[in-house]
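Standup notes, protein team

Yesterday: finished cleaning the Triticum aestivum set.
Today: DDE Tnp4 domain-containing protein structure.
Blockers: none.

Input for DDE Tnp4 domain-containing protein:
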Amino acid sequence: MDTLPEYMGRINARHLELYCSIALLTSVAAAQSGPEWDKFSHFNHVKAYAPEGDNTKKWYVFYTVDPYNLETNVSHSFMSRGTLTSFEDAQGFESLFKMTRKTFSYICSLVMGPSMEDMNRYTFVDERVMSLEDRVAVSIRRLQSNEPTESIASSVGVNESIILLVTERFVEAMWEPARHHSNWTDSSEKDQIKSYNMHNCCGVICTTRIPFGPNWDHEKNGSTLMQVLIDPVMRFRNIWLGSAGMNQSSLLQDSALFKECEKGSLLNGSKLKVGLDGSEVGEYIIGDAGYPLLPWLLTPYQEEDLSDFKAEFNRRHSTAITHALKALARLKDAWKWLQGESWWPANLESQSKIIYACCWLHNIVIEMEDDAAMLSTKRRNYSKEVREIAKEDAVRARDLLSQHFLASRSSEVGEEGDEAASSGSGAEKKKQEAQTRTTDEEISILTS
């Protein structure tokens, strides 16, 4: 994510020279109203630059603390607060856009670039020019609603054709600067997100159908399958769209995720020791019974009478799948255009970009606003080690892991019992001590 590191606010220095992206420069140029102010405002002098083409200093911000001065060639119209976002209270803004103003400002900074600069010709019906914030607000309203476009146009005072054009341009502008929000994690972050109460699990793979609404000719566009890998905080860490006629199985085998995992170049990080004999299980993801059982993709047991360790595996597996399905429900509830009831472009590439944009927006909201989420600022940094998938036995790996789960559960229950007993004996001891205190001691405690 394009932000200054938190430690910048603690650096004691007089001068700062910064070379950054146009998105981060926009946040700096916003000064007190931007999210980066507290990180650089204490420097006596700041020079910040963003490139365009071969010019590394095309865009700039010059800041001086005393006397206060801030100069920038970043267009004011691109930073000015739009008509549609002029809420005096944060609650009203968040109620309408389902995100904080800080998150909204970050999204604006992502799309503030050459692809949006020629849009000053787009206006409201009263001929007022739409600012960048207005255009982003219109696009978000369109993506968040399953109402007809004409209804949204009437509510915001913009022609229907303008809403569709602005939304398509917004989605196009998101394509490059936002795509890292669904990047596969690097090794260090992956170790931190392994969860779902399934040791060494790196995510849940799910497939869902995205229906397309009618296009300009009022013809139904059909639908497409989307395969996603979901992490414990409900972010989509890998997205793959299918082509016509695909099912869950063919979509999986077509995906880059499948091909890289089969080659051993993904899910090739730390291994989990699951036995006293030194047995280990590699990194894995989980999926429902519709997926094949693979060394890196574990599915539930299908037998009738399950042993205790198999039942424990299925219990944890089911809980994780349910949690992941909630992420898909949250996506479609927040970005209702994915429900397919309103207009969609007929072009397949444009359809795909809308789906990706909604997934990235879903992730951005979580990363900016959910305390449980880690802000993913890193680019891809895969392990160079190649995992020898062909030598691994998926059935054995699942059995070993299941036995490990059951053993760890028994251990956890035992520790909880010991803690409860210890707590109880401690309370009893304190009670006895209190009963033997003298009156003078009690007064001393009360008045100390």
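Follow-up from PR in the comments: The two ends are 52 Å apart (CA to CA).
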